[in-house]
Amino acid sequence: MLAADEMGERNVLKNLVGKLFGKAKADPPSDGFFLKVRCSECGERFNLYINKSYELMQNFESDGQVTYALKKMVYGVGCSNRIHVSMKFDGQKNPVSKEIENGEYIDE
Ligand SMILES: [Zn+2]
Hints:
Oligomer: single chain
Number of helices: 2
Number of strands: 7
Bound molecules: zinc ion
């Protein structure tokens, strides 16, 4: 696990590289994160790996910028509750906002 300030430096560097080289470089397949949510109905926890290269939807904004969004439905076996996850990302695929229905995000 990296220290918080080390992570910050890496993100800054990543943003800088993204701005300099634009879309020339494809994202590596390992570019992803873990989505941790809990069902508000039964308390079941889900730990899903989201691959940013395949699972994010591209949005073309009116000002010409490209942003990304993730929409996912999560549910367990034997539970009627459906958790709706909705996240938004900037042009570098860094998360900028997240919403959830019928469940909650777990931060650990
Ligand atoms: Zn449940």
